[in-house]
TrEMBL record:
Name the UniProt record assigns to this protein: Tetratricopeptide repeat protein
Keyword Metal-binding tagged: no
Sorted UniProt keywords: Coiled coil, Repeat, Signal, TPR repeat
Matching InterPro entries: CellSynth/LPSAsmb/PSIAsmb (IPR051012), TPR-like_helical_dom_sf (IPR011990), TPR_rpt (IPR019734)
Domain of life: Bacteria
Keyword Metal-binding listed: no
Gene3D superfamilies: Tetratricopeptide repeat domain
Residues making up the signal peptide according to the UniProt record: 1-25
Family matches, as SMART domains: TPR
Length: 587
């Protein structure tokens, strides 16, 4: 057998060549059988078009179905994997989205958009470290990614990697050929990284390399000032060309040093300069009016605001700033000047109303001011105008109802209708609902309308206890009135509320007061004593005062005085408590 296997070298080489050729041919044949034909590829592309159609129609399930069919025909269709990833991102199926986009990256690793989508999916899962890794792969494997470098900078900031963020800013500057474009951002990042010295050095070098660039000087001066180097900052600012920005910083420095006299001429220069930026002027006025009156003269601010009015007589932003300035001045002024500043603020509001009558905030300020000052005639006039612009605002109906109720030419029926409308529109605003309900109760009490009293009083706010404003209103009413029919109705309502809020001390205070007014002193005494035993933590001064009142009526004078004293120490009593204690007598 061996002699037959002993072939010559030539024959052996020929046989080896033949077998290799056959293997290569077989491999080529297998590869061709696995490759997608041009017809199959065309079919896959048609399926992709259908998928895109349903994607645009936001029919994502059908879009997914067509994409999966496309991938069955051509599993290496990286665009289909990418589109699946996009849909899964929209559907918040982040793990599926990452699985799809990873396949797209494997097939086409140089496509930057595949890394961007992967980063978005990771960010949606709050995985910033993984998102950063995707952006870093984009930088490694693809090109023309410069517009996404700032996204990576943001991710680095989120991770606290300020050095990495700065590198991305610098790379962006290099790619776009915009040197020092992100100077401010780099300064802020250095400060966040605790590298103030490096930030100062960077800005110092920029001011030296570009001596005519005012923005670098302003940045440098601002940082010097924030690090306590105010003298150095002032020197830098003085070397700049006169501008509102440099003057603004200088003014702040002088005010911080308490040198108002040095700041005055610069302030005047900014305000009188018609070419200076109006925004800078308004910001300056807002900051100056917010400063303490010991740092700046109120009359000087008044003068500067009048200067702005003269230069920009009908500018809405100037008038808005004027209203804020004069409102602030009125708070700081003495009684002699206060009224004048309040008039100026009111004038500004009226100007704003006339210039833009649909401005909700202006109407709100006007009506609130009139309501707080109980200027009912003014309120009625303004409310009527406001309602034409804001027909669906519950607050305005509340104001309007008050105006009708108290104005000399008001209509009480109209007032009640306004309160009803306000109540409908208040919706879930508990505070406004409470105010409206209390006003309806007050109106019903004034009219002696027992039905309305019950309706108005039995609607508590949904905050775990009855409406305290309504309770206080009823207590004030009971102090001054003795109408037995109304008081009996109130007792029924209070009993219903106590069942709902058994821990509400204010309700028991009111019930005790009702029983007192009905002459049921022993019942009131028993009620209070039961409440004190069961809910000692919820006892108010008002409840203890009424306890003392009932004890007095039961001829337990010493015990009554003792409870009045406890009531006074607890607080929230009537203004007669001291007289009761001193005279040992009920008033």
């Amino acid at each position: 057998m061996k002699k037959y296997l002993q072939l010559s070298p030539f024959i052996f080489a020929f046989l080896l060549f033949c077998s290799s050729t056959e293997a290569i041919a077989q491999e080529k044949k297998e590869k061709e059988s696995k490759e997608v034909s041009k017809y199959e590829r065309a079919n896959a592309e048609y399926l992709m078009i259908d998928a895109q159609k349903f994607y645009l129609l936001e029919d994502y399930e059908r879009a997914i179905a067509f994409l999966e069919q496309s991938l069955e025909v051509d599993k290496d269709n990286h665009a289909a994997h990418f589109k699946l990833g996009e849909i899964y991102l929209i559907q918040r199926k982040y793990d599926k989205g990452l699985k799809a986009i990873k396949k797209a990256q494997e097939i086409k690793p140089d496509n930057k958009f595949y890394y961007i989508l992967a980063a978005q999916l990771h960010k949606s899962q709050s995985n910033l470290q993984a998102a950063a890794s995707e952006y870093e792969l984009m930088l490694k494997n693809s090109t023309d990614y410069r517009e996404y470098l700032l996204d990576l900078a943001d991710v680095y900031v989120g991770l606290g990697n300020y050095d990495g963020a700065i590198k991305m800013l610098e790379l962006t500057e290099d790619k776009y050929n915009i040197p020092n474009k992100f100077t401010t951002q780099k300064k802020e990042l250095l400060i966040q990284a605790g590298k103030k010295k490096e930030a100062l050095d960077m800005l110092k070098k920029l001011t030296e390399d570009f001596p005519t660039n005012e923005s670098y000087k302003l940045e440098y001066a601002d940082l010097l000032s924030s690090t306590g180097q105010k003298t150095e900052a002032a020197d830098i600012l003085k070397s700049t060309a006169t501008s509102s920005s440099s003057n603004f910083l200088l003014i702040n420095l002088k005010l911080e040093e308490g040198d108002f006299e040095a700041a005055k001429p610069m302030i005047t220069e900014i305000m009188t300069n018609k070419e200076a930026d109006l925004g800078a002027k308004l910001l300056l006025m807002s900051n100056l009016s917010a400063a303490g009156s010991d740092k700046i003269s109120l009359s000087f601010l008044d003068q500067q605001q009048k200067t702005l009015y003269s230069i920009y007589p009908n500018d809405i932003e100037v008038i808005k700033t004027g209203e804020k300035v004069y409102s602030t001045l009125a708070e700081k002024a003495n009684s002699q000047d206060k009224a004048a500043y309040e008039t100026q603020a009111l004038t500004a509001l009226n100007q704003l109303k006339d210039l833009n009558p649909s401005d909700y905030e202006v109407w709100n300020q006007l009506l609130t001011r009139a309501y707080n000052q109980k200027s009912w005639e003014t309120l009625l006039t303004n409310s009527e105008d406001a309602l034409s612009y804001f027909p669906n605002q519950g607050l305005f109906y509340y104001y309007y109802g008050n105006a009708q109720l108290y104005s000399s030419n008001g209509d009480k029926e109209e007032a009640n209708m306004a309160f009803d409308q306000a109540l409908k529109l208040a919706r879930n605003d508990e505070f406004l609902t409470s105010k409206i309900q209390s006003k309806k109760l007050e109106f019903a009490l004034e009219e002696g309308n027992t039905k309305e009293i019950r309706t108005a009083f039995e609607i508590p706010v949904a905050s775990g206890k009855a409406d305290s404003e309504a309770i206080n209103l009823m207590l004030r009413y009971l102090n001054d009135h003795r109408e037995q029919e109304i008081i009996k109705d109130v007792l029924v309502v209070v009993d219903d509320l106590i069942k709902e809020y058994p821990r509400d001390g204010d309700l028991f205070h009111l019930k005790a007061k009702v029983l007192f007014q009905l002459g049921r002193f022993a019942d009131a005494k028993q009620l209070i004593e039961n409440f004190i035993r069961q809910k000692p933590a919820n006892i108010s001064g008002g409840l203890l005062e009424v306890y003392g009142d009932n004890l007095f009526m039961l001829n337990q004078i010493d015990a009554a005085v003792e409870q009045w004293k406890k009531a006074k120490n607890t607080g929230n009593t009537s203004d007669k408590i001291d007289k009761k204690i001193a005279d040992k007598k009920y008033y």
